[in-house]
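== Folding task for one protein ==

=== Format: two labelled lines per protein ===

==== Paired sequence and structure tokens ====
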Amino acid sequence: MRRPSMSQNVELYCYLVTKISWKGSYKRLLTIGTMGVTTYNKDTLRVTNQWPYSEVCGVRPDPTVKNNQPHLQRLILTLCDANRKRTEMTFASEYRVDVLTDFLRFRTRFAEPSSPNPRVDAVKVGWSERTTNVLLSATPISIDQLDPISGNVIKSYLYRNIDHLDVVSDLPGGLAIVQSGFGRIHVFVVRNPEAIIKAASECALSYLGLQLRRAPKPITRDYCREFRLGTASEEEFISQAEFVVQKVTLRQSTPVSRLLCITDSLLLERDPPSYRAVCGYPLCEIYTLVRDRVQPQRFVIEYVRGESKTYFSTDRDTLLASLLDAVRASGNRDVCVRSTPSNRGLRFCPTMTSASEEVESVHLRFLRQQPEGISFWEVLQRFNANVAYSGLLHAVTQDGVFAENKEKLIKDALSAILTQPAPGLDTSLFTTLPGVGSRPMDTKRGQVKHADPDAQLVLLEAQFHALRRLVASKAGFNAFTQL
């Protein structure tokens, strides 16, 4: 049942979990929003429970593991009602660290907020060897880098994205944070680095059930300089194309000039005067390219680990075309260009992972027959959020008496998309549709005062994205040619 007090809730993160109770185990969608937590029936998208953060006492990992479900890790959500009576609900997920991380982003709004995290003075060693005074704080989900004057968070190094953490052996007070994946290194100087490492390790284990690792061998200052941008070889730093851009960053009040360099496997940012590399990102970790429809020079690059970078360029479209070609040439076939940011609140699993056969089948059935109270256009957005741009991963009917006929599901989904009336004729969708357009839609009495051309373009774009995902499979292409 929906709570009236959460009518303005915006869902930011979504996970397919298993709810465990004395009645049995049930698959549920667990969404984490701006005002509270909601669970849905995954097959009907009906709300089964909803709790504002004022009723959440806390959430913690549960070390219990079932022998028949070793891949599922448990977490316990503690709730309290108006009479301060506590109840505990147990969920299981293969993405427990991600669920807990996103849940604890809102820990300050809980009924029993955690105590403030201690902050220590530190010095950040930058790409040019220039040092900057900052504050470091080990929080339940990350090591935060803060501005010493305003106290604002400049950068959060999430524990789930840290490969290992250790001292720099030949730098007094040196602390190295090595990120997962590419192995980028961030170096700080603090009075007692071991205390920071201990505090971070205890927080990660207590709040997330995650064991932070130390470096397999001593980290030296020379090692940090050599592999500051990760483990790429010198050949991987050779540019294939370069573009001058303005980068939007929290550290500066105005955009910073950068040279965006596309190599065979990396996207590098260089300092234009010195041509020194500032930072780099693997092309294989780019998730989506967002081409802003309102501002003609603005674009955003979204990464699979949740980061996004915003730039401005006078040569934006050429840059995006070159980057798209490079990303696909690197082996990343799931990247696409869209006009609005991706909506993580619609996706059943982290962007780092691919959707399961169950998730793909559910969304194909949604296209064929929308759940009660859900518009076709929301279903379409959910389909695009969960199915890879390169196409369905499970498009062939499996052997078995009760196997689902995937070819028929795909054909029915294609037919539903192609026979759907234009979005401008569907006035029921505008009050409920999430994430349409770059600006909120102006609604009145459940209808739009004047049809927003941008919103209709976004919905039309969603149709083409869905068609692309369906016809990328052999079954989808055959069905498309027969319709």
